[in-house]
Request: fold
Amino acid sequence: MPLHRSVARLVKDPLRAFEQFGIEAAGEVVRVDLGWFRPHLLTHPDHVQHVLRDNTANYVRDGQGMFWRPIRRLLGDGILSDGPIWQASRRNLQPLFSAKHVDSLVDRMADVLASAVAELEQRVVPGQPVDAGVEMSRIVYLTMIKLFFEDRISPEQADRLVPALDAIATSITFRLLVPFVPNYVPMPGDRTFRRAVRTIDEIIFPIVREVRSAPGSGDDIISTLWQARGDSGEPLTEQQVRDDVVAMFGAATETTSVVLTWLWPLLDAHPEMAARLYGEVAAVVGDGRVRREHVPRLRYTRMVLDELLRLYPAGWLFPRTAVATDAIGGVRIKAGSTVLISPFLTHRMPAFWERPLEFDPERFAPESAVHRHRYAYFPFGGGPHQCIGRHVFAAEAPLIVASILSRFRPHVTSGQPRPQAAASLRTGAPVLMTLSPAERRMAA
Reply:
């Protein structure tokens, strides 16, 4: 794809440019000419599988590479690489995010979410819109600091931390899309990024130091990291613990809150699907609060969430660097080349999805998944870097949706948003909605 077409499109509308690249590629491996930076774009599920699973050792997250450079100041090198520091961090934290451990937290999660939604109910003013993104984020982070941080991060600190992380996610957009521009060249968002990182450091470093001096039970993320050891048996440094805490807090809150923000305008645009969802929640949950035993019966809710992740995956772009020369789809990939994988593009390929731009939860009915390519749908990535928080989303998201819809009927007042390319896939404008009381009834 030649320089004059690629750069012009990216400058005008970055996400639309990537969509157009994907459409024109039609599953073939293409090289996008951005001048000095010429990444290969992969959209076909076979090619995605090759990079993320079959030959994963050859395609690494290069913490020193151009694409990762913008967020290294926030997350450090370890979490952005495939090296020993990342392996140690993953090994140390994996038990806290395993399916078994997350399942053990579901009852507490339901209790915390019930309190968070009840608090929202107290704050709602009839007819006055609320910002769906802000409210989803608040519900999620209140849950996370209770379950994974043992209240070491206070709600007041989280109220500062979350906006700082949001500012970073949007401020680095230009640098993510034009990663060949050196750091010393000023770019839009740089000042916002630096200010947000300072805010995060002011909050997290004192907490990290406090836990080191009084680690407590060791069941939370920060205590677990201080008890962890690297490959050589040495304890983690203060900076490493800080980096992992920021990464885990961001991962634990970002995916769920960003994805659920997209739910409300989609329900508003599809009243028949909204009615079916409301009916299921009313029949399963009834007049009480959502409990563990309700979740397996929220089948349509799960289908809605899966379709939501297909259309609007929070992690929309996965860069990798080739260690050795390889071939994908008959195209030679030289050592050192960057390959770009995008769930956002693959999830919308007409060759693998009928009516790919339509919101249709029925495509995730159990019988529909039988013939689907494993990597036609990968909202949480794949291989060794598959998102560590995927089990948290699977448990938490249905509880949140059912808790909200058992009390409210949302109505979006701000119109249908367009997706915006940032560190995660966000709504281009705030989603404003009013929340009217739902008619409560006994569960069937």
About this structure: Residues 280 and 298 are 7 Å apart (CA to CA). DSSP finds 17 helices and twelve strands in the chain. The radius of gyration is 22 Å.
